[in-house]
Amino acid sequence: MTIVGTPVDKQLFQLQPGNGNIEPTPADLADLARTLQNDVDRGEAAKTLLNQYKQEAGDGISTLIMIFNGTGQELSFLGNYDDSGHIGKYPYDTEIANGQWSAVLHVKTSGAAVGSVANVAYQASGGRAFVIGWSVPFIGSSTSRVTDHTAKDFQERKSKLLSSDYISTYVEGGKFRTHAGTYNGYRIEWAIGNSTSPVYTVRLLRP
């Protein structure tokens, strides 16, 4: 189990006082997810789950990845790329509903002098694709990056976006550890620690 939280969907929206038969927009569903504090309360539960995964995996470089979907839409898995290391015992979630956290552990390759360096891509049901990258090197500081793309752009450039080129140019080249901004109708926030097994928190939201 890597998903934490109950989906904040049309059914839950219409159960709220005064909403009745109102047809919610993605913005309405995103607002409700924030109102119900899914991003805060469930975030702590996701962190606890990741710490359990880390204990199971043992010592060594790793990345504890937490992705919150507050877009008001469903996120679907598009693909991933490992520059060094690999996903842990539990795979990436194929779907992340609005209001849910996905918690996954990425670990270094056992017996090798490498780090945890990779990216993963998800697409919102509204069409926007997000590429989430991180670098926790064997030597040096952690960096991270999230970029957004149209569905067409992602498909045309998929082999470049899920590759070492993306890692070297955007993740390691950008030298970001924390960032927040609004792009094409979405609020994107991310932050990564600087230990040998940092927590990497990504929040995909509505402005």
Describe this protein's structure.
This protein is an alpha+beta fold and 207 residues long. It has a single domain, classed as Sandwich (Mutm (Fpg) Protein, Chain: A, domain 2). The protein contains five helices and twelve strands. It has helices at residues 10-15, 26-35, 38-57, 151-161, 164-172, and strands at 3-4, 62-70, 75-84, 86-87, 95-96, 101-107, 116-124, 129-136, 143-149, 178-183, 186-192, 199-205. The strands form two sheets. Strands 1, 2, 4, 6, 10, 11 and 12 form a seven-stranded mixed β-sheet that branches. A five-stranded antiparallel β-sheet has the order 5-3-7-8-9.
Supply database-style keywords.
207 residues, alpha+beta, Mutm (Fpg) Protein, Chain: A, domain 2, seven-stranded mixed β-sheet, five-stranded antiparallel β-sheet, 12 strands, 27% helix, globular
Task: List the SSEs and their pairings.
Layout: E1 3-4, H1 10-15, H2 26-35, H3 38-57, E2 62-70, E3 75-84, E4 86-87, E5 95-96, E6 101-107, E7 116-124, E8 129-136, E9 143-149, H4 151-161, H5 164-172, E10 178-183, E11 186-192, E12 199-205
Parallel strand pairs: 2-12
Antiparallel strand pairs: 1-6, 2-6, 3-5, 3-7, 4-6, 7-8, 8-9, 10-11, 11-12
Poorly predicted runs are: none
**Annotated CATH architecture:** Sandwich
What separation lies between the terminal Cα atoms? 29 Å
Name the CATH class: Mainly Beta
CATH overall fold name: Mutm (Fpg) Protein, Chain: A, domain 2
Summarize this, please?
With 207 residues, this protein is α+β, with helices and mostly antiparallel strands.
